[in-house]
């Protein structure tokens, strides 16, 4: 069972995860196979982590986590709907966080210079 934000409970529906992923990944270089694999991973994780019920927020966070790893445009699309940004400032803050994370992961390791080929 999935516990919604308003307290309602409904059956877990893997198709809803796939539909959300498809919308976020529309016209992006993400294969249907990747979308199915993400849905499988999330379904497995939710089944393992919960006895009977799981909060919908856990599912949404898991989808965002997976999208962040594979396609940042799809991630931002999903986040904009999932987090229901109230204004452009909230949206820009999310983009700034994404840019900062990208800079941190692409910066050279200590003692290396960009482009020196050391890996």
Structure in words:
- With about 120 residues, the chain is mainly alpha-helical.
- The chain has one domain.
- It is about 60% helix and about 5% strand.
- Strands 2-1-3 form a 3-stranded mixed β-sheet.
- The longest helix has 19 residues.
- The C terminus is likely disordered.
Shape: globular
Largest sheet: 3 strands, mixed
- This entry's quaternary arrangement is single chain
Structural class: mainly alpha
Helix-strand string? EEHHEHHH
Number of strands: 3
* Number of helical elements: 5
Percent strand equals 5-15%
| Low-pLDDT ranges | 109-119
Radius of gyration: 17 Å
- The count of domains is 1
Strand order of the largest sheet: 2-1-3
Q: Fraction of residues in helices?
A: 55-70%
N-to-C CA distance = 46 Å
Mean pLDDT: 83
Provide keyphrases for this structure.
globular; 5% strand; 3 strands; 5 helices; 119 residues; mainly alpha
């Amino acid at each position: 069972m999935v516990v919604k934000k308003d307290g309602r409970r409904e059956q877990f529906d893997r198709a809803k995860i796939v539909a959300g992923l498809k919308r976020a990944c529309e016209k992006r270089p993400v294969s249907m196979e990747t979308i199915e694999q993400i849905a499988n991973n999330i379904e497995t994780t939710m089944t393992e982590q919960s006895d009977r019920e799981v909060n919908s927020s856990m599912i949404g966070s898991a989808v965002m986590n997976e999208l962040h790893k594979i396609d940042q445009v799809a991630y931002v699309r999903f986040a904009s709907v999932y987090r229901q940004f109230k204004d452009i400032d909230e949206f820009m803050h999310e983009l700034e966080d994404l840019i900062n994370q990208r800079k941190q992961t692409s910066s050279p390791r200590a003692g290396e210079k960009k482009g020196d080929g050391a890996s």
